Amino acid sequence: MRPDHPVRFAAPSPASSLGAAQTPSAGPAALPPESSGWLAHFPVSLFGMTMGLMGYALALRSAGAMMASHMVFGLACAVFGLLATLFVAKALRQPQALKAEWNHPVRLAFFPAIAISGLLLARLVLEYAPSLANILWMLGAAAQFGLTLVIISAWISARPFGPESLSPAWFIPAVGNLVVPLAGVPLGHIEASWYFFAAGLTFWIILTTLVINRLIFHAPLPGKLRPTLVILIAPPAMAFLSWLLLTGPNPDALARILLNVAYLFAALVLFQLPGLLRLPFSISFWALSFPLAALTTASFRFAAMTGSVFHQSLGHAGLALLSLTVILLLWNTLRLALRGQICLPE
Protein backbone atom coordinates (compact mmCIF):
# COMPACT_ATOMS: atom_id res chain seq x y z
CA MET A 1 0.00 0.00 0.00
CA ARG A 2 1.39 3.43 -0.88
CA PRO A 3 2.50 5.41 2.15
CA ASP A 4 0.99 8.63 0.79
CA HIS A 5 -2.49 7.13 0.70
CA PRO A 6 -3.12 5.70 4.18
CA VAL A 7 -6.50 4.13 4.72
CA ARG A 8 -7.59 3.64 8.31
CA PHE A 9 -10.53 1.93 9.92
CA ALA A 10 -13.60 4.09 10.14
CA ALA A 11 -14.09 2.76 13.67
CA PRO A 12 -12.05 0.67 16.09
CA SER A 13 -11.73 -2.91 14.95
CA PRO A 14 -11.96 -5.83 17.37
CA ALA A 15 -8.95 -7.98 17.92
CA SER A 16 -9.35 -11.16 15.97
CA SER A 17 -8.70 -14.36 11.18
CA LEU A 18 -6.70 -16.32 9.62
CA GLY A 19 -5.99 -14.22 7.78
CA ALA A 20 -4.05 -12.67 5.05
CA ALA A 21 -1.36 -10.10 4.52
CA GLN A 22 0.02 -8.30 1.55
CA THR A 23 3.44 -8.75 3.01
CA PRO A 24 6.55 -6.73 2.42
CA SER A 25 8.92 -8.08 -0.17
CA ALA A 26 12.44 -8.87 0.87
CA GLY A 27 15.44 -10.80 -0.34
CA PRO A 28 16.10 -12.48 -3.66
CA ALA A 29 12.67 -14.10 -3.75
CA ALA A 30 10.93 -10.72 -3.85
CA LEU A 31 8.96 -9.84 -6.96
CA PRO A 32 10.69 -7.11 -9.01
CA PRO A 33 8.66 -3.87 -8.90
CA GLU A 34 9.04 -3.45 -12.66
CA SER A 35 7.09 -6.66 -13.39
CA SER A 36 4.46 -5.74 -15.95
CA GLY A 37 0.76 -5.72 -15.12
CA TRP A 38 -1.23 -5.64 -11.90
CA LEU A 39 -1.88 -9.39 -12.20
CA ALA A 40 1.77 -10.07 -11.45
CA HIS A 41 1.24 -8.45 -8.04
CA PHE A 42 -1.99 -10.29 -7.16
CA PRO A 43 -1.07 -11.71 -3.72
CA VAL A 44 -2.02 -15.23 -2.68
CA SER A 45 -2.62 -13.79 0.79
CA LEU A 46 -5.93 -12.39 -0.50
CA PHE A 47 -7.39 -15.87 0.06
CA GLY A 48 -7.44 -14.90 3.73
CA MET A 49 -10.62 -13.02 2.77
CA THR A 50 -12.40 -16.24 1.87
CA MET A 51 -11.17 -17.92 5.05
CA GLY A 52 -12.57 -15.05 7.09
CA LEU A 53 -15.91 -14.89 5.28
CA MET A 54 -16.48 -18.65 5.42
CA GLY A 55 -15.49 -18.71 9.07
CA TYR A 56 -17.98 -15.90 9.66
CA ALA A 57 -20.72 -17.91 7.93
CA LEU A 58 -19.97 -20.89 10.20
CA ALA A 59 -20.05 -18.66 13.29
CA LEU A 60 -23.44 -17.27 12.27
CA ARG A 61 -24.70 -20.80 11.75
CA SER A 62 -23.50 -21.84 15.21
CA ALA A 63 -25.47 -18.89 16.63
CA GLY A 64 -28.62 -20.00 14.80
CA ALA A 65 -28.64 -16.99 12.42
CA MET A 66 -29.25 -19.11 9.34
CA MET A 67 -30.46 -16.40 6.98
CA ALA A 68 -27.43 -14.22 7.68
CA SER A 69 -25.20 -17.28 7.36
CA HIS A 70 -26.60 -18.02 3.89
CA MET A 71 -25.99 -14.43 2.78
CA VAL A 72 -22.40 -14.40 4.00
CA PHE A 73 -21.83 -17.84 2.46
CA GLY A 74 -23.03 -16.55 -0.91
CA LEU A 75 -20.66 -13.60 -0.67
CA ALA A 76 -17.80 -15.91 0.34
CA CYS A 77 -18.43 -18.15 -2.69
CA ALA A 78 -18.44 -15.15 -5.03
CA VAL A 79 -15.18 -13.83 -3.57
CA PHE A 80 -13.60 -17.30 -3.67
CA GLY A 81 -14.60 -17.74 -7.31
CA LEU A 82 -13.17 -14.34 -8.26
CA LEU A 83 -9.89 -14.89 -6.42
CA ALA A 84 -9.50 -18.42 -7.79
CA THR A 85 -10.01 -17.14 -11.33
CA LEU A 86 -7.40 -14.40 -10.84
CA PHE A 87 -4.98 -16.86 -9.25
CA VAL A 88 -5.27 -19.27 -12.20
CA ALA A 89 -4.83 -16.36 -14.60
CA LYS A 90 -1.69 -15.30 -12.75
CA ALA A 91 -0.33 -18.85 -12.90
CA LEU A 92 -0.89 -18.97 -16.66
CA ARG A 93 0.12 -15.43 -17.62
CA GLN A 94 2.64 -14.53 -14.93
CA PRO A 95 4.35 -17.82 -13.95
CA GLN A 96 7.57 -16.07 -12.91
CA ALA A 97 5.64 -13.83 -10.54
CA LEU A 98 3.92 -16.87 -9.02
CA LYS A 99 7.28 -18.63 -8.68
CA ALA A 100 8.73 -15.57 -6.91
CA GLU A 101 5.80 -15.57 -4.51
CA TRP A 102 6.27 -19.28 -3.81
CA ASN A 103 9.96 -18.70 -3.07
CA HIS A 104 9.21 -15.78 -0.76
CA PRO A 105 9.90 -16.82 2.88
CA VAL A 106 6.75 -15.07 4.19
CA ARG A 107 4.23 -15.43 1.37
CA LEU A 108 4.92 -19.16 1.06
CA ALA A 109 2.87 -19.77 4.22
CA PHE A 110 -0.26 -18.26 2.64
CA PHE A 111 -0.67 -20.84 -0.14
CA PRO A 112 -2.55 -23.29 2.14
CA ALA A 113 -5.23 -20.58 2.57
CA ILE A 114 -6.57 -21.82 -0.78
CA ALA A 115 -6.93 -25.38 0.49
CA ILE A 116 -8.40 -24.17 3.79
CA SER A 117 -11.02 -22.17 1.89
CA GLY A 118 -11.99 -25.31 -0.02
CA LEU A 119 -12.26 -27.31 3.20
CA LEU A 120 -14.46 -24.64 4.82
CA LEU A 121 -16.59 -24.60 1.69
CA ALA A 122 -17.05 -28.38 2.03
CA ARG A 123 -18.25 -27.92 5.62
CA LEU A 124 -20.71 -25.21 4.64
CA VAL A 125 -22.36 -27.22 1.83
CA LEU A 126 -22.36 -30.50 3.75
CA GLU A 127 -25.99 -30.30 4.91
CA TYR A 128 -27.29 -29.40 1.44
CA ALA A 129 -25.09 -31.34 -0.99
CA PRO A 130 -23.18 -34.18 0.71
CA SER A 131 -21.80 -35.52 -2.57
CA LEU A 132 -20.42 -32.12 -3.56
CA ALA A 133 -19.07 -31.64 -0.05
CA ASN A 134 -17.26 -34.97 -0.29
CA ILE A 135 -15.59 -33.96 -3.56
CA LEU A 136 -14.59 -30.58 -2.16
CA TRP A 137 -13.28 -32.20 0.99
CA MET A 138 -11.15 -34.71 -0.92
CA LEU A 139 -9.68 -31.99 -3.13
CA GLY A 140 -9.03 -29.72 -0.15
CA ALA A 141 -7.57 -32.49 1.99
CA ALA A 142 -5.28 -33.65 -0.83
CA ALA A 143 -4.10 -30.08 -1.42
CA GLN A 144 -3.57 -29.54 2.30
CA PHE A 145 -1.62 -32.80 2.59
CA GLY A 146 0.69 -31.88 -0.29
CA LEU A 147 1.17 -28.25 0.72
CA THR A 148 1.98 -29.19 4.31
CA LEU A 149 4.73 -31.58 3.24
CA VAL A 150 6.15 -29.27 0.58
CA ILE A 151 6.16 -26.16 2.78
CA ILE A 152 7.66 -27.90 5.80
CA SER A 153 10.26 -29.50 3.52
CA ALA A 154 11.11 -26.00 2.27
CA TRP A 155 11.45 -24.79 5.86
CA ILE A 156 13.92 -27.53 6.78
CA SER A 157 15.82 -27.54 3.48
CA ALA A 158 19.26 -26.06 2.88
CA ARG A 159 17.65 -22.70 2.13
CA PRO A 160 18.27 -20.42 5.14
CA PHE A 161 15.41 -18.69 6.95
CA GLY A 162 16.33 -15.89 9.31
CA PRO A 163 14.27 -14.96 12.37
CA GLU A 164 12.81 -12.01 10.45
CA SER A 165 11.11 -14.48 8.08
CA LEU A 166 9.14 -16.09 10.91
CA SER A 167 5.71 -14.70 11.78
CA PRO A 168 2.35 -16.03 13.04
CA ALA A 169 1.45 -16.50 9.36
CA TRP A 170 3.50 -19.69 9.56
CA PHE A 171 0.63 -21.17 11.56
CA ILE A 172 -1.58 -21.24 8.45
CA PRO A 173 -0.33 -24.63 7.20
CA ALA A 174 -0.87 -26.07 10.69
CA VAL A 175 -4.35 -24.55 11.00
CA GLY A 176 -5.27 -26.09 7.65
CA ASN A 177 -4.69 -29.56 9.03
CA LEU A 178 -6.95 -28.83 11.99
CA VAL A 179 -9.74 -27.68 9.65
CA VAL A 180 -9.85 -31.03 7.80
CA PRO A 181 -11.93 -32.92 10.44
CA LEU A 182 -14.74 -30.31 10.38
CA ALA A 183 -16.18 -31.92 7.25
CA GLY A 184 -14.07 -35.08 7.26
CA VAL A 185 -15.67 -36.61 10.36
CA PRO A 186 -19.32 -36.05 9.29
CA LEU A 187 -18.45 -37.42 5.85
CA GLY A 188 -17.04 -40.59 7.42
CA HIS A 189 -13.33 -40.00 6.81
CA ILE A 190 -12.44 -40.76 10.42
CA GLU A 191 -8.90 -42.12 10.14
CA ALA A 192 -7.84 -39.45 7.65
CA SER A 193 -9.24 -36.82 10.02
CA TRP A 194 -7.19 -38.25 12.87
CA TYR A 195 -4.06 -38.01 10.73
CA PHE A 196 -4.63 -34.36 9.88
CA PHE A 197 -5.53 -33.53 13.48
CA ALA A 198 -2.32 -35.14 14.75
CA ALA A 199 -0.23 -33.32 12.13
CA GLY A 200 -1.85 -29.98 12.88
CA LEU A 201 -1.53 -30.35 16.65
CA THR A 202 2.13 -31.36 16.40
CA PHE A 203 3.20 -28.45 14.26
CA TRP A 204 1.04 -25.99 16.21
CA ILE A 205 3.01 -26.86 19.37
CA ILE A 206 6.35 -26.60 17.57
CA LEU A 207 5.52 -23.34 15.82
CA THR A 208 4.12 -21.75 18.98
CA THR A 209 7.53 -22.16 20.61
CA LEU A 210 9.34 -20.74 17.57
CA VAL A 211 6.98 -17.79 17.09
CA ILE A 212 7.00 -16.79 20.78
CA ASN A 213 10.81 -16.94 20.70
CA ARG A 214 10.88 -14.72 17.62
CA LEU A 215 8.44 -12.20 19.14
CA ILE A 216 10.36 -11.93 22.42
CA PHE A 217 14.02 -12.11 21.41
CA HIS A 218 14.11 -10.58 17.93
CA ALA A 219 13.03 -7.42 16.13
CA PRO A 220 9.31 -6.54 16.24
CA LEU A 221 7.10 -7.63 13.36
CA PRO A 222 6.88 -5.20 10.43
CA GLY A 223 3.75 -3.07 10.44
CA LYS A 224 1.92 -5.04 7.75
CA LEU A 225 2.56 -8.32 9.56
CA ARG A 226 1.49 -7.17 13.01
CA PRO A 227 -2.21 -8.05 12.43
CA THR A 228 -1.11 -11.67 11.93
CA LEU A 229 -0.59 -11.84 15.72
CA VAL A 230 -4.29 -12.62 15.89
CA ILE A 231 -3.63 -15.91 14.08
CA LEU A 232 -2.33 -17.22 17.42
CA ILE A 233 -5.98 -17.69 18.44
CA ALA A 234 -6.95 -19.92 15.53
CA PRO A 235 -5.04 -23.21 16.11
CA PRO A 236 -6.31 -23.97 19.64
CA ALA A 237 -9.85 -22.92 18.72
CA MET A 238 -9.86 -25.13 15.62
CA ALA A 239 -8.22 -27.97 17.56
CA PHE A 240 -11.04 -27.73 20.12
CA LEU A 241 -13.73 -28.01 17.44
CA SER A 242 -12.01 -30.91 15.68
CA TRP A 243 -11.29 -32.75 18.92
CA LEU A 244 -14.98 -32.71 19.84
CA LEU A 245 -15.91 -34.18 16.46
CA LEU A 246 -13.31 -36.91 16.81
CA THR A 247 -13.98 -37.89 20.42
CA GLY A 248 -17.66 -37.22 21.07
CA PRO A 249 -20.06 -34.52 22.20
CA ASN A 250 -18.94 -34.26 25.81
CA PRO A 251 -15.94 -31.94 26.32
CA ASP A 252 -13.17 -33.68 28.23
CA ALA A 253 -10.10 -32.21 29.93
CA LEU A 254 -8.15 -31.75 26.68
CA ALA A 255 -11.07 -29.98 25.05
CA ARG A 256 -11.28 -27.54 27.95
CA ILE A 257 -7.52 -26.96 27.82
CA LEU A 258 -7.63 -26.18 24.09
CA LEU A 259 -10.56 -23.78 24.47
CA ASN A 260 -8.97 -21.93 27.35
CA VAL A 261 -5.63 -21.66 25.54
CA ALA A 262 -7.55 -19.97 22.74
CA TYR A 263 -9.04 -17.55 25.30
CA LEU A 264 -5.54 -16.92 26.67
CA PHE A 265 -4.21 -15.91 23.26
CA ALA A 266 -7.31 -13.77 22.68
CA ALA A 267 -6.60 -11.91 25.92
CA LEU A 268 -2.96 -11.40 24.90
CA VAL A 269 -4.04 -10.03 21.53
CA LEU A 270 -6.39 -7.57 23.23
CA PHE A 271 -3.35 -5.96 24.85
CA GLN A 272 -1.92 -5.40 21.35
CA LEU A 273 -5.13 -3.84 20.06
CA PRO A 274 -4.20 -0.15 20.61
CA GLY A 275 -1.04 -0.58 18.54
CA LEU A 276 -2.90 -2.43 15.78
CA LEU A 277 -5.54 0.28 15.50
CA ARG A 278 -2.86 2.90 14.88
CA LEU A 279 -1.69 1.10 11.75
CA PRO A 280 -2.91 2.17 8.28
CA PHE A 281 -5.37 -0.33 6.87
CA SER A 282 -3.96 -3.02 4.60
CA ILE A 283 -5.07 -6.43 3.37
CA SER A 284 -3.21 -7.99 6.29
CA PHE A 285 -6.05 -6.88 8.57
CA TRP A 286 -8.11 -9.78 7.21
CA ALA A 287 -6.01 -11.82 9.64
CA LEU A 288 -8.44 -10.59 12.29
CA SER A 289 -11.48 -12.38 10.89
CA PHE A 290 -10.89 -16.15 10.82
CA PRO A 291 -9.40 -16.54 14.34
CA LEU A 292 -12.29 -14.57 15.88
CA ALA A 293 -14.75 -16.67 13.86
CA ALA A 294 -13.12 -19.88 15.11
CA LEU A 295 -13.20 -18.69 18.74
CA THR A 296 -16.82 -17.53 18.44
CA THR A 297 -17.89 -20.88 16.99
CA ALA A 298 -15.96 -22.74 19.72
CA SER A 299 -17.69 -20.67 22.43
CA PHE A 300 -21.15 -21.42 21.03
CA ARG A 301 -20.25 -25.10 20.67
CA PHE A 302 -19.08 -25.40 24.26
CA ALA A 303 -22.16 -23.55 25.51
CA ALA A 304 -24.47 -25.87 23.54
CA MET A 305 -22.85 -28.97 25.05
CA THR A 306 -22.58 -27.79 28.65
CA GLY A 307 -25.41 -25.29 28.98
CA SER A 308 -22.91 -22.63 30.09
CA VAL A 309 -24.57 -19.21 30.03
CA PHE A 310 -21.14 -17.60 30.39
CA HIS A 311 -19.79 -19.21 27.23
CA GLN A 312 -23.04 -18.44 25.42
CA SER A 313 -22.49 -14.78 26.32
CA LEU A 314 -18.89 -15.00 25.12
CA GLY A 315 -20.17 -16.39 21.84
CA HIS A 316 -22.62 -13.53 21.35
CA ALA A 317 -19.95 -10.97 22.25
CA GLY A 318 -17.53 -12.60 19.83
CA LEU A 319 -20.16 -12.64 17.09
CA ALA A 320 -20.86 -8.93 17.56
CA LEU A 321 -17.14 -8.13 17.35
CA LEU A 322 -16.74 -10.44 14.37
CA SER A 323 -19.65 -8.80 12.54
CA LEU A 324 -18.19 -5.34 13.11
CA THR A 325 -14.77 -6.55 12.03
CA VAL A 326 -16.01 -8.07 8.77
CA ILE A 327 -18.07 -4.98 7.91
CA LEU A 328 -15.05 -2.72 8.42
CA LEU A 329 -12.77 -5.09 6.53
CA LEU A 330 -15.13 -5.26 3.55
CA TRP A 331 -15.60 -1.48 3.51
CA ASN A 332 -11.91 -0.67 3.67
CA THR A 333 -10.98 -3.41 1.18
CA LEU A 334 -13.51 -1.96 -1.26
CA ARG A 335 -11.96 1.48 -0.75
CA LEU A 336 -8.51 0.09 -1.56
CA ALA A 337 -9.85 -1.70 -4.64
CA LEU A 338 -11.60 1.43 -5.96
CA ARG A 339 -8.38 3.40 -5.49
CA GLY A 340 -6.35 0.73 -7.25
CA GLN A 341 -4.21 0.13 -4.16
CA ILE A 342 -4.32 -3.66 -3.78
CA CYS A 343 -2.31 -5.34 -6.54
CA LEU A 344 0.69 -3.02 -6.42
CA PRO A 345 4.44 -3.65 -6.42
CA GLU A 346 6.06 -3.21 -3.02
From TrEMBL:
Annotated stretches, region: Disordered: 1-29
Transmembrane segments annotated in the record for this chain: 38-59, 71-89, 109-126, 135-158, 194-217, 229-247, 253-271, 309-331
Main location: membrane
Record keyword Transmembrane present: yes
Keyword Transmembrane in record: yes
Annotated membrane topology: Multi-pass membrane protein
Compartments in which it is found: Membrane
Domain of life: Bacteria
Alphabetically ordered keywords of this record: Membrane, Plasmid, Transmembrane, Transmembrane helix
CDD domains found in the cross-reference section: TDT_SLAC1_like (cd09323)
Protein name: SLAC1 anion channel family protein
